[in-house]
Amino acid sequence: MKELDKYENKKILVLGLALSGVSAAKLLHKLKALVTVNDYKNLDENPEARELINEGLRVITGGHPIELMDEDFELVVKNPGIPYSNPIIKKAIEKRIPIITEVELAYEVIESEMIGITGTNGKTTTTTMITEILNTNRLAGTAYAAGNIGTPASKVAMKATELDTTVLELSSFQLLGTINLKPAISVITNLYSAHLDYHGTREEYVRAKMKITENQTENDYLIYNADQSELSELVNQYSQARLVPFSRKKKLEQGVYVENGKIYFNEEAVLKVKDILLPGKHNLENALAAIAVAKLMNKSNESIKTALTQFKGVKHRTQFVCSFEKREFYNDSKATNSLATINALEGFEKPIILLAGGLDRGISFDELIPAMKRNVKAVLAFGETADKIIQTANKAGIDKTIKVVNVEQAVPEAYRLSEPNDVILLSPACASWDQYPSFEIRGNAYMESIARFIQSKQEEE
Predict the structure, then answer these.
(1) 123 annotated binding-site participant
(2) Is 347 annotated as a binding residue?
(3) Per-residue confidence at 281, pLDDT binned at 50, 70, 90?
(4) Terminal alpha carbon distance of the chain
(5) Residue 178 is part of a domain; what is its CATH number?
(6) What pTM, to 2 d.p., does this model score?
(7) Is the domain of 211 the same as that of 248?
(8) Quick one: 235 and 259 in the same domain?
(9) Which of 26, 113, 281, 306 is 20 to 30 A off residue 32, Cα-Cα?
């Protein structure tokens, strides 16, 4: 960690805890700042707050009292999920107090080289792919995955050295609170409309995403999806970095592309498309981005191939669970919208038994119809949207549909409808909150149900 005295004896407010808030508070405390932590949850249900109190920090819980802003704070470190409409944030803006997110703080002290990954979809998978490639046959140091992927960037910043690499997944919420952040290599996987309830407009969402390259210079690199014409225009508009495109649709003069079943980097064959274990066009795009980073980091083709031929995916993201009696089970619980489910469905050539449903946001699922028509043979629907999902399946000409209570009940029913060589896929196209606290808990329930079902079948034998 870099020696930094700019925060010594400075009054700083950390607004909102969770993992990133705890880590930011600890880092600032280590930098000898005068830290005040404010979290909405009450102290008796807030172990993170109690931990910080035990370490000697000032912690205020049970709400966000606007009176806090009567104090002379010189900086606010905001939890990414707290909107800028929050009264304390609005007051900070009015008083012209800088507002940053924890990733900006981490950037200021980190010694390792930083790779930043953003985009609407594919961030976590790409971040994990890059990390695993960089750690394959590595001779010195470690590549750490951090940021929106779960491990706070500031936690890694306190231990990473010049020998290490930090691979940082960056959400639009995190990027909006950056000022000087400048990855040596940035990646934009793709760009669609998302989180407009937070950003207000698509233009603001795009502006937040492009902050990943805002401070980059001609000594840095920006890797981007050249199959999106809008994104190609944006990177030329926003970035001063050296541009490295990737494409799965067309041959490129430079960058990473697919031709005749092989992946090339600047006309050098790296590996065959079929060597990539993860199914789906979207995962091929993630791999292209990861390969671009790897080649810029001077990783050998052998290391890239070793990593990608063993990479089974990130948990809950088109994750291969197991094979049983020639049926393949996949967990894609992270698919909380139709686009993610379409990507998952298009990733398979085999017949699919689809498990879908969840929180009803009042939207139609008709955009699923073309992908369903392709190779979905049966649908099991659960949750608030069960009836809507079944109606969509019927429109797609699928006559095998069953309404079940939850994913646990769906597993044996899906097996009953399946045949050898079928894929049984949980890809809900909905958030989980009607039945499960998170998509992770929903995915775990699915995988545990598979394990119980297989055990019961084996005991019958």
Answers:
(1) yes
(2) no
(3) confident
(4) 58
(5) 3.40.1190.10
(6) 0.85
(7) yes
(8) yes
(9) 113
